[in-house]
Amino acid sequence: MELDIVELSRLQFAMTAMYHFLFVPLTLGLSILVAIMETVYVMTNRPIWRQMTKFWGTLFGINFVLGVATGITMEFQFGMNWAYYSHYVGDIFGAPLAIEGLMAFFLEATFVGLFFFGWDRLSKHAHLAVAWLVALGSNFSALWILIANGWMQNPVGAEFNPDTMRMEMTSFFEVIFNEVGQAKFVHTVSAGYVTASVFVLGVSAWYLLKNRHVDLARRSIAVASAFGLASALSVVVLGDESGYSASHTQKMKLAAIEAMWETHPAPAPFTAIGFPDQEARETHYAVELPWVMGLIGTRSLTTEIPGINDLVAEAEDKIRTGLIAYDALMTIRENREATQPEVRAAFEQNSGDLGFAFLLKRYVDDPRDATEEQIALAANDTIPGVAPLFWSFRLMVGLGFSFIAIMAYFFYRASFRGMQFPRWALYGAVAVIPAPWIAAELGWFVSEFGRQPWTVDGVLPTALSASHLSVGDLLITLAGFMVFYTILFIVEMGLMLKYIRKGPFQDVEETEIWAARHEHRLRTHDGKGPFAPTATPAE
User: Fold this and answer.
1) With b meaning 16 or more CB within 10 Å and e meaning fewer, what string describes 506-532?
2) CB proximity list for 443: less than 8 A, separation 6 or greater
3) pTM higher than 0.90 for the full model?
4) CB count, 10 Å around CB of 308?
5) Dihedral sign of CA atoms 174, 176, 177, 181 in order
6) How many Cβ atoms from other residues are within 10 Å of residue 83's Cβ?
7) DSSP assignment, residue 299?
8) What residues pair up with 271 in beta bridges, in sequence order?
9) Contact call for residues 38 and 131 (beta carbons, < 8 A)
10) DSSP string, 121-181
């Protein structure tokens, strides 16, 4: 087994996937924010909201196009670098991706064109419907992709067929309503909403610092802070749901995130900070909060969360059970229809742990020849990198709570302080723009790195999933992707900065005329309006 090929394939996929996800959250969030702004325009008929819709819609369009380009190249890798994975689970994994392309992406792409070119061809209400269909398509795309990814984390609704040597779907309903996929969907889209809200907030704050496009900036901050506060709160709540799901679907990942080496009496404590030592299997200088992990992970005071050491021992038992299934599988492959019923019965009884026997392929060609030492090594391989997961998770959570504070502050200033913002707060809003992308990438790192050594948890090890390529092939394609994505990054940043500096450039005259009339009405409303100037007492 050429592990260098596997590691290069992992590196290439990680690079392309995490780069692609730089575009996804902004697309998800901006599509909703733009639709909200157009809804306000249709309700009030105020040109400033139409101008806002077009301006933020332009930035959405740039991000959308480049996100599509990076997403297509990423999907090609399933066939190029992960051929055995595609063969082994393609019947299940491919179905949600096909539905995403045929249903969600076509919906989104079709109505994106109508959104940009239909302003003067569609009625206001028809164009508003288009805006919401674009938002629906964007979020629908995320749903199907995360259903596919959720199945990799929790492979339900499928079973292994020993005659075809492939996983086959047994329940489409279970695949769709997989609890991990659903939890990942709501958590991911909420993170996207926060990302877009912080982006709109930061760009609008920059305009206020420059004293440009003040009306647009203040209204944008009002929308972004309200939407962002609700989204940031939901991210925390829905992240808790993901943790609860992991407590019974991915126990090793949860234990690694918490650096929980031993099983604690229920309810388990939460390690707020510490320094995990995977070699010694202990966490130095740990600061624990009693009961918190038990309440989050199990939502009870009596259910234990197993520690890493106990889970390794459990994995060793599953490897031994998997060896029974593997031996029966080899007999079935050799005898085909002539296989004795008791052999098939033995396979069916132990097939759920077949993937654990495959972990031995790293050490021996035929898992049945594995020694006790090799079985122990394979069981230890089920522990992902604890320290990176431990710190990535805590940084992600810390950023998540900071977004709640930021959005709450700006919502308060926008709602109760007449949209007056201190300059230090505006500078802070600009500086925090990259933070939600960092949090989102950390979230994906925790999700995917925490699943190792599995491509499909408990079913297919990553070491078996890769294509039979040469190191040279992978280095060439890795370099090609790096060049291609670097160019796309430069294009993306150049276009986004260009149009942000340019500011709103559509409907300028109409908006300025309306703004002047609106200000005049406020100032001359018979002295009775809420914004009318206060009369000076006569002397």
Assistant:
1) ebeeebeebbeeeeeeeeeeeeeeeee
2) 187, 188, 191, 396
3) yes
4) 25
5) positive
6) 16
7) S
8) 288
9) yes
10) TS-HHHHHHHHHHHHHHHHHHHHHHHHHHHHHHS--SEEEETTTTEEEES-HHHHHT-HHH
pLDDT tens readout for residues 377-419:
999 999 999 999 999 999 999 999 999 999 999 999 999 988 9
Percent of the chain with pLDDT over 90: 67
Q: How many other β-carbons are positioned within 10 Å of the β-carbon of residue 243?
A: 18
Q: Could you tell me which residues come within 8 angstroms of residue 286 by beta carbon, excluding any fewer than 6 positions away?
A: 259, 271, 273, 274
Q: Measuring CA to CA, which residue among 64, 79, 180 is closest to residue 466? A: 79
Distance CA 28, CA 136 (A): 9
| Confidence band for 539, pLDDT divided at 50, 70 and 90 | very low
> How far is residue 157's CA from residue 143's CA, in Å, rounded to a whole number?
18
- The pair of structure tokens assigned to 401 is 């709570």
442-491, pLDDT tens digit by residue?
A: 999 999 999 999 999 999 999 999 988 888 888 998 898 889 889 988 99
Show the tokens assigned to 264. Answer: 């604690």
Contact 403, 435 (CB under 8 A): yes
- List the structure tokens of 156: 């339900």
Q: By CB neighbour count within 10 A (0-12 exposed, 13-18 middle, 19+ buried), where does 44 fall?
A: exposed
**Residue 194 CB burial class (10 angstroms; 0-12, 13-18, ≥19):** buried
Report yes or no: 469 and 5 within 8 Å, Cβ to Cβ.
yes
Which of 377, 247, 255, 378 minimizes the C-alpha distance to 322? 378
C-alpha 289/C-alpha 280 separation (Å) is 22
